[in-house]
Amino acid sequence: MLKKLLPALLLGAAGFGAGALVARPTAAEPVTVPLLRAAQELLGLHFTDAQLDSAKGAIGRNRGSYDELRKIALPNTVAPALVFDPVPLRLRLAAPAGKLGPDRMAPVGKVKLPANRDDLAFYTVRQLGELLRTKQISSVELTEFFLARLRKYSPQLLCVVTLTEELAMQQARAADAEIKAGRYRGPLHGVPFGVKDLFSTKTYKTTWGSVPYKDQLLDEDAAVVTRLRDAGAVLVAKFTLGALAMGDVWFGGRTRSPWDLKQGSSGSSAGSASAVGAGLVPFALGTETLGSIVSPSTACGTTGLRPTFGQVSRAGAMALSWSMDKVGPLTRSAEDCALVFRAIQGEDPRDVATLLRPRAAADFRCAFDTDVKKLRVGYLKADFEGEYSSKGTDQATLDALRKLGVELVPLDLHGLPAGELTFLLSAEGAAAFDDLTRSGRDALMVNQGKNAWPTTFRAARFVPAVEYIQAQRARRVLIEEVDKRLLGLDAYVGPSFNSPSLVITNLTGHPAVVVPNGMRPNGLPATITFTGQLYGEAKLLALAKAYQDATDFDEKHPPLFQ
């Protein structure tokens, strides 16, 4: 019976459009007990025929409501009325945070313009900012330098969707004029950068990396684009992302790692990581929902910050999962992450998640004079003891931290509900791209595999609303349990992938910074991940910077692009 009824069941629940393989049933087709019996088998329910007969009238009325709902225009920019709150009860009840003083930065030292201008490719944001501040180079010169590298190397890496050359030169000239007049905006003033092409920009396409949207023009600048413009930074490019923020395959091909052109850059912040790793820009913006900063940073050898959920506005950014999407920088160092994060973080009424910060959370300030010996740092002991490809480099990192005087406290994150909650992402993604699925335009996407978005979005149409809400309730349990286990810690360190931490903290909203710590057997960089308390980016970045100051892995660059 199930085999006979399953096609009708699938179509009734999913409502596929003309692009589906079979026709969609009309709204007038009756809801019957046999149809519901098959449906409940799929969902693991066990109602009697009499119970199903009693419910079929309400179910039919609900289906009519679905048809009416689908007539309402709901573009990707419309967020749900419900907003994910990552804050545990302990922080909600805590006393208000005291006011912080100014940023506490380490001395930049004397920065000189290199004799070989090509060396500028791998200068840090702070070094380039100092060259601009001291007028040793102009923003126009620096912008032309990086535009030239982008034009030269992007065909090899397939990391650029659009060069924003005209805008970049306008912004560079404006930066030079302001700096010359003594109106210096800070360390990003005049520094070129790029953004993942899911951030909207006026006059330039915002393609989301996918064929159905490759000609899309959105008449607004994303919040982070505006904030970086206000900081004086110069937008030079929009970088590739795996289609609709999955992987490294987009409508123009596969973005590659600068360390090995035969290997992909991973994703979904594919182009941002590839370009920064190859020295085509000093920094770029990416997003993470479930690994999209950590994974490409590993493949490309960049330092990436995934901030606390709600710390950075997503207004003007493509939505994939409203309760999991986070915006962060990919750079050469933890110090650079702090500089960029400082510019883009903060409240924005257009993204309600940014308004949920508890009174116990202080505004972010760079705190690089933090004595890391006084930090209480956990480490995922059981995960480091397992066998995995980067175990040797990770053990060396633990040794380096101990040499810095950091006391490492064993921490265990196993046994928590996490992996079984990841269908939340698929369900929200299916809602965000409901029209794409029902119109059949998902057939235009390059990747059509069993694990690709078209299939995932279709499958997600069968996630029951009750189970979605139950999963969010279980997520609240997860938030409180993680908060208990991290109590008394300032941060913890764990393998980037050989651990449940990546999934757990993307669900709970904790910040993390991923940093290079060696090379893997496959020839790509290895990384390790530092994770902080909610809204604890200051201590987190101070710890990561201390590690990078004691090692040189962040100063190694791919030979093909030096």
Question: In summary, what is this structure?
Answer:
Pfam families: Amidase. 38% of the residues lie in helices and 13% in strands.
Descriptive account of the structure:
The protein has helices at 2-14, 33-43, 49-69, 89-93, 125-133, 139-157, 165-180, 223-230, 270-277, 294-300, 334-344, 381-385, 391-403, 423-432, 434-439, 453-460, 465-485, 501-508, 537-550; strands spanning 160-163, 192-196, 234-239, 249-250, 253-254, 256-257, 260-264, 284-288, 303-306, 326-331, 376-380, 407-411, 491-495, 512-519, 525-532. By secondary structure, it is α/β, with parallel strands linked by helices. 49% of the residues are buried. The radius of gyration is 24 Å and the shape is globular. It starts with a helix and ends in a 12-residue tail after the last helix. 38% of the residues lie in helices and 13% in strands. The chain contains 19 helices and 15 strands. Helix 14 packs across helix 16. Helix 8 links the parallel strand 2 and strand 3. It has a domain at 89-98 and 105-341 and 375-419 and 468-555: Amidase signature (AS) domain (Amidase signature (AS) enzymes, Alpha-Beta Complex). The strands form three sheets. It has an eleven-stranded mixed sheet. A two-stranded antiparallel ribbon has the order 4-5. The chain has a two-stranded antiparallel sheet with strand order 6-7.
